[in-house]
Amino acid sequence: MLFEGSPAAIPGLLELLLVVLTLGLALLWLVPKARATRYKVTDRRVVVELGLVSRRIEQVDLFRVVDFVVELPFSQRVLGTGNLVLECQDRTTKELRIERVRTDVRALYEAVRKAAEAERARRGVRTLDPL
Predict the structure, then answer these.
(1) Which listed residue, 30, 53, 77, 91, has the most CB atoms within 10 A of its CB?
(2) Where are the domains of the chain?
(3) CATH fold of 3-123, please?
(4) Phi and psi dihedrals of 50, rounded to 5?
């Protein structure tokens, strides 16, 4: 397991301001919203579970991940959160976003990148860049 968790309930300055202005009442909406998403990143796949009542599960095998983007917007950097975007060669999931997570997103990127390379090597998969 490389990472397991949910988005932060207060990922950025905008949400923090909303919580302060509503004297904490915004947490009644922000916390369930954050808990409705669950991320699991292993050395073989990424699984995203969405929804509180009805669940939707998306998964992408790491050998299908072809590019990574680390997003660290200022409002999230201040509170220690960030986003990792995985671009995939998958029929149903072209882009998988691991958003607003309270972890070192750069370290997560490095771990996922190494795991994707190892998984491609293990399966003997080669990716070709289009001309």
Answers:
(1) 30
(2) 3-123
(3) PH-domain like (2.30.29)
(4) -120, 140
